[in-house]
Amino acid sequence: MKNTIIMLAAVLLPFYSVEKEKTLPSWSNDKTVIAAQKKEQILYLFFTIEKKVSEKITLKQSKIAEGRIRTFLGFDEARVQEGDFVVTLTGADGKEIVKQAVQDPLHPVMEVYDIKEIKRFKASLQRAEFSLRFPYSENVRYVKIEKKKGQDKKLLFTQKL
Hints:
The chain is mostly beta strands. The protein has a single domain (29-160), classed as Immunoglobulin-like (Sandwich), CATH 2.60.40. The chain is 14% helix and 47% strand. The chain contains 2 helices and 9 strands; from the N terminus they run ααβββββββββ. The chain has helices at 2-17, 31-37, and strands spanning 41-51, 55-66, 85-91, 96-102, 109-113, 118-122, 127-135, 140-149, 152-160. The protein has a 4-stranded antiparallel beta sheet with strand order 4-3-8-9, with no helix packed on it. Strands 2-1-7 form a 3-stranded antiparallel beta sheet, with no helix packed on it. A two-stranded antiparallel ribbon has the order 5-6. Strand 8 and strand 9 (152-160) form a beta hairpin. The chain is extended. The chain starts with a helix and ends with a strand.
C-alpha cells in the first residue's frame, strides 16, 4: 500500500508541477490593463520663488524620468495651513488631475539643536527653490500654484507644460 502511494505520487507529481503558460486574460484589451503595461514615469517640476513686493514664481525646469512613486499621499485640504502653497496639475480640458500641498518655501521651519532640547523657528527668505514630483500622466497640460490666505486662495502662478 505504501509503495503504491509513493509510485502514484511519483507519476502524478511531474504533471501538476509543470508551470502553465502565462497568458493575458480575455479582458486584456481593456484600457486600464494596457495603461498598466506602459512604463511608469515620474514628472519632476523645479521652481524658484522670489519675494519683492509680492511672490514671483518661475518654473526653471520640468523633467520626466523612469521610475515609480511608491507612496503618493492624497491631497487633504484640512492639513493645508495659512501661507502654504497648493500645486494643481490639470488637463487640457481644465479637469484637475492631481493636487499637492507644499509648505511655504519662503518661510521654512528651521531646527536648532541645543544640549537639552530642539528648538524650531520660522526663517524668512527673499529667494528660495523648491521641487515637486508627481506620477507622470500624458494628460497633464497646466500647472497652477495657489497660496492659502485664510479661507481663500490667491493665484500665484499658472503655466502650460
